[in-house]
Amino acid sequence: LNTIGSRKHSYGHIGSAVLLGGIPPTAGTVTQLLVSLLDDVSNVPNLCTMALEVLPSGLKTVVSDDGLEIRVYYLECLAQATFIISHEGSAFIVDPRRDVDAFLADLKTNNLSLKGILETHFHADFVSGHYELMQRTGATIYFGPGSSDRCKFPHHQLADNEMIDFTSRYAIRVLHTPGHTPESVVYLVVDITNNNRPLKAFTGDTLFIGSCGRPDLVGSVGFTAEQMSKLMFSSLKNKICTLPDDVQVFPAHGAGSPCGKNLSADLYSTIGKEKLTNPALQYTDEDEFVKFLTTGQPDAPQYFGFDVQQNISGAPLLAEELAQVPRVSAQEFKALMDSGSCTTIDTRNADDFAAGYMQGALNFPLGDAGGTIVGPEDGNFAIWIGTLVSSSSDILLICDPGKEGEGLQRLSRIGYTKVKAVLEGGMASYRAAGLPLASTTRINLKTGDPLETYLGSGRVLVDVRTGGEVSSNTGKGALNLPLAEIYSLMERKLDKKTNYIAFCKAGFRSAIASSVLRKAGYSVQDIIGGFAAINVYAPTHTTTGEVCPSMKAVIDAMEKR
Prior knowledge:
There is one protein chain. This protein is α/β, with parallel strands linked by helices. The protein is built from 19 helices and 24 strands. Strands 1-2-3-4-5-6-7 form a 7-stranded mixed β-sheet, with helices on one face. Strand 5, helix 3 and strand 6 form a beta-alpha-beta unit. Helix 4 packs across helix 6 and helix 18 crosses helix 19. The protein is globular, with a radius of gyration of 25 Å. It starts with 26 loop residues before the first helix and ends with a helix.
């Protein structure tokens, strides 16, 4: 409501974050405000206000233990977990993501009062919702030792072994576990009626299932990777491994996260299981551990430093920030695009994009379910935008009608809120305006020509997966151009006189890569189903020459959808 009448075609939002400075509105208050604004908005031409829908929470499971409940929320697209710990009507939230409405709704539905916001560290891979939750609920934000030197908003700086009051039976004990970042902590739920015995461990980026946090991110500024690795060795050996084996472990990330290597897709584990199976917990020699931890880490996306700074400063209220994004006509959108000062992101699926797209647009398919579920042909939407698009870029956004709010919120999860405009009515409006479109065809190996037909005409395969993925099996003669390195490698490895066929595992990354390469002037098509399709429908064109069961499973899953 703060923005109604202030900007043509803007997104408005009626919610407690906007109304009355965070005070939850009554129905009467809303009515009075609407009546008082009626005269102002009635004369604004083409005003379009649209509430940002509450995206799916990503609630995967509820772990119950004698009245203590752990609600596990997980975004597969960001490989990021948020937890709500509750007992006797009180709750703490651990590592909340940027869009917090779903969490507030769950707290209300379950009659829970939020006592505090527990941050395990200054996150680099996503923008936290801690500051908004504090403003909207009054709950205290907690950070680990040393955080006050950097944190720019009110918070409680914790000490090692500090106890946070919770309920009549439980408390939260703090373990300072530097290694991923200097201020990293683990939160233990302890039973104060049983000698403070620890029961649950929220390990953040200190301990993952099957791995541990990497030591070389910007959150560790001022320290070398070797120094942080030594701190991690001590934290794991002297803090984590001394916990009872039956303590349940709830990490901040899972498979697909760039915050570590070889993470498991499991949502939780136990200390005992990790001591037996986690490679990071098998080392007794510090130097060997340092070598293990500093070798083979994936490249950190360039947006990480940007997100750390937002988490240190506190991100603005999401609804207010996104309310400033205008929806514009096709002609206005094209004029902005032609100015050359913006990056155009088209979030439609790869098939729709190929059938008709704006020349120069990049295709990052949004996928389904608000990012809570990643299908076989979907991927890490926000992570790849943060990897390939500068955080300083002005963005023009194209979405399917009705998905605009989701697109904006999912960009905001990594702090990408510099959206100059959203295309009103999606691509249908652009076509109706008669504006120029480009198109391409995607290669369908199941129903179309065999792969040898394409290769026989001089096309060259380009595998955009990582070197580790390629080493086990790839297309015969394929060039390796990892998507994360595409801008630095394409001029060295490709030429504009050759026609290329791009593929990844199942088609998500190659859809992105193809749009990047076409914008740069290369001739490229991608394969529907990626390497999985090559392996299943043209196995003789792979380096192993055999159908891999895991690739067959990918194709089967795609066909079921």
